[in-house]
């Protein structure tokens, strides 16, 4: 497995030592019509978003179906480049104090909103404080806890004035962190840290909800948005680096069935597609297939407030009855790695050891031990038989197949009958956040390149927890890791935290993600970050 995170950390160390300046734009548009273009010569990339975005409010759309698109409509102070490392974006340069806690960003004079307004430091201060405002109730607010005063404000123990983000003037933003954070430049490339045009948002608090009111500062502008159907983006002529953008348009379908998506790809209605699992063997060796790494985990959440999952042994029994290798070999069939822990491969410690390899397999299939644990757990709870169990997943053919496989494993290995239920994404997500599910399908894609991002999801107060599980030892380990300046000690704390998570088992993992995509030969330079979101700034279509 490639250790690209090592390169990232190396680049960040260079950034810490010196202020950064922007590089020259590269590439010019080809002239004349060619295959893949319309009769007018318009270059239109045809993509599938899968589902309706949850929200284009940067503080709310905390999922890939929102942020993959939003990442191309807006831009932060930094942007992940082709090599997956942060580079100057709206900020042309920055300075970092000797203690690593104070960052001063200098915003480009030609940074504009799509309506022609200047992008200002005040737009960033407004957006970041809004992200942390408890009234915003952003599920991504925890990403701002690195900022001095951010966590206290979000928890209702401080005020917006205590959050150390200050617009010194229109083009200078000063940010003070609570502790040195070597990956801060990576964190702020995340859509949660995109600016918001304060005057637009003040006049219309729902500015993000429709194409005709949306105002962005990224490579593309939102031209049309037919909800639950399709979106159209057009090249943003106000973008500071518009000369780099080669595409004229990006059309997004919203089809959440992989078989339909593939048929659209074959008929020329899409330029990229996922691979239907039942066609994996014949398609994976195609010259049009791209397989890339992705830092993320497919897993299931137990609701520990719902019977029978208040019992740790029952949770462990079900987790140990699942065979992850069989699921990736016979169900998903996309060359994923089976997951026996939560943190994915690819994160190297200061000593050069991969996190996943060091912490090993924290849960493995073991039917005999699972049967014993189930018996002990039922005895502890006084159950003659288990209460009814419902497994919930959001609607998609792939999710259904995995759920059916797990349902069968529970039945064959433990004699446990499970009912399946599905719901559309937005309905499913709201129910999961409200702890209305017993056992539910989930996924995690890293927001920034550090193992702590995986593990912080299960602290007691995290909006990402969604299990009802709370553990003081775990919370303390995560808090200590976030404030530990010694990297070796920090990693030891993270290793221990993951072990506590799996000793308690509020979740069980299925597989680590990769990115397996069919892509037309006419398409080039779509960047899919292992940690981060889809980049179309450099994409082209011949």
Can you offer a commentary on this structure?
With 542 residues, the protein is an alpha+beta fold. The protein has 2 domains: 45-261 and 520-541, Alpha-Beta Complex (Dipeptide-binding Protein, domain 1); 296-516, Roll (Dipeptide-binding Protein, domain 3), CATH 3.10.105.10. The protein is 30% helix and 19% strand. It contains 17 helices and 18 strands. It has helices at 4-17, 64-73, 121-132, 150-154, 184-187, 198-203, 258-266, 280-283, 312-320, 324-332, 355-359, 367-381, 397-414, 425-433, 451-455, 472-482, 487-504, and strands at residues 44-48, 78-80, 86-88, 91-96, 102-107, 165-169, 172-176, 220-226, 230-235, 249-253, 272-273, 289-302, 389-394, 418-423, 439-445, 507-519, 523-524, 540-541. A 6-stranded mixed β-sheet has the order 11-16-12-15-13-14, sandwiched between helices. A 4-stranded mixed β-sheet has the order 1-10-9-8, with no helix packed on it. Strands 4-5-7-6 form a 4-stranded antiparallel β-sheet. Helix 16 runs antiparallel to helix 17. The chain is globular. Residues 1-39 have low confidence and may be disordered.
For the record, give the distance between the C-alpha atoms at the N and C termini, rounded to a whole number.
32 Å
* Overall tally of structural domains: 2
Shape: globular
Question: Strand order, biggest sheet?
Answer: 11-16-12-15-13-14
By CATH, the architecture of the largest domain is named Alpha-Beta Complex
Q: Tell me about the biggest sheet?
A: 6 strands, mixed
Q: What is the CATH topology of the largest domain?
A: Dipeptide-binding Protein, domain 1
Structural class based on helices, strands and sheet pairing? alpha+beta
Give the name of the CATH superfamily of the largest domain: Dipeptide-binding Protein, Domain 1
The oligomeric state of the chains shown is: single chain
Low confidence ranges: 1-39
Q: In the CATH hierarchy, what is the class of the largest domain?
A: Alpha Beta
Mean pLDDT across the residues is: 91
User: What is the strand tally?
Assistant: 18
Helical content class = 25-40%
What percentage of the residues does DSSP assign to strands (E)?
A: 15-25%
User: How many helix segments?
Assistant: 17
Region (Disordered): 25-58
Family: Belongs to the bacterial solute-binding protein 5 family.
Organism: Halobacillus litoralis
Signal peptide: 1-26
